[in-house]
Amino acid sequence: MPLALLALAIGAFGIGTTEFVIMGLLPEVAADYGVSIPVAGHLVTGYGLGVVLGAPLMTVLGTRVSRKRMLMLLMGLFIAGNVLCAVAPVFGVMLAGRVVASFAHGAFFGIGSIVAAGLVAPQKKAGAIAMMFTGLTLANVVGVPLGTYLGQSAGWRITFLVVAALGVLGLAGVAALVPEQPKPEDVRLRDEVAAFRNMQVLLAMAMTVLGFGGVFAAITYITPMLTEVAGYPAGSVTWLLVLFGLGMVGGNLIGGRYADRALMPLLYVSLGALSLVLALFTVTAHHKVTAAVTLVLIGGLGFATVPPLQKRVLDQAAGAPTLASAMNIGAFNLGNSLAAWLGGLVIAAGYGLTAPNWVGAALAASALLLALVSGALDRRTAGRSRVVTGTPHERVPAVARH
Questions:
Q1: Within 13 Å, how many C-alpha atoms sit on residue 9's CB side?
Q2: Domain limits at 202?
Q3: Is 336 a domain residue?
Q4: Are 184 and 68 in contact (CB under 8 A)?
Q5: What is the pTM of this model?
């Protein structure tokens, strides 16, 4: 494994911790600022929207410098945002800090995906991307549970200071291990934007929004769901998040392993199973054991889609992948924001704390439908290609009939 992949995983670990740790601390943050749980959920929505807006902006700015330097600048922005969260005197300032930190997210993973894919042989690209995202998934096994425990015992502000320190570690890792790469002189914004005229790129991004949004519909409100519905004590949430993180790690590695072999079938299976499991979570959430098992499955199935969807975008936008890659990371977080907002709506409407699971199931099922459409377009394109590129022997009879 190239050491540069380790550096990217370190940065991903810090970013993953700050993205997900807020979910375990929503009750503490809400109580401190005197807001409701749905309002506190805006910290998830705001972060996701910041990624969506920041991904194209920071990526375009990044074309002016080397990829290594841009990754370092992004980690610096991440550190600043988390420090702002830690010292925020009012809820609005904390929300602003979340947005500042989120601006680093999309471009880091987008540029990092290109760097990771360029470090290995073509047939190993999805595996390299998955290795970088392993940092994100390990954050949910180690960083998020420890951050949740620390926030519940010593105060949530301490958690964000520790997350900022993780950002410093990530910055040092990129500086020490990622090789210097010249800025891509041939990158033109017009070419990057042109990639979005490819219907398959747009379909992949829509699958990202809906599929991963299905995960976040449930996970955003997982703490009150586990404590008030399943009956777990608040202290158990830390270890339940470890289970979710273990599912993410497993799903990410499986996705990276099989996306290079059977990308679309993997998406069909993972999205279909995710929709079913989320629907079942409305029932299994009422029992401790079944709730824990379902949590693992949601993490695994959700993250099994990440490497194939990211590779799908890179493949379909091969001529100018930088902006498309970053925008697909933004699409993950657009899904997060959409799902967090919809989940808050159904809770606020009085449908109960398990109602977001139905929202998640519907979103994942919609992603599956788009995957089937995308696969059908692949087959149609392949069929046309076979007709056009048939051998002379195959084409002669057709000509003779005229």
A1: 19
A2: 3-179+189-382
A3: yes
A4: no
A5: 0.73
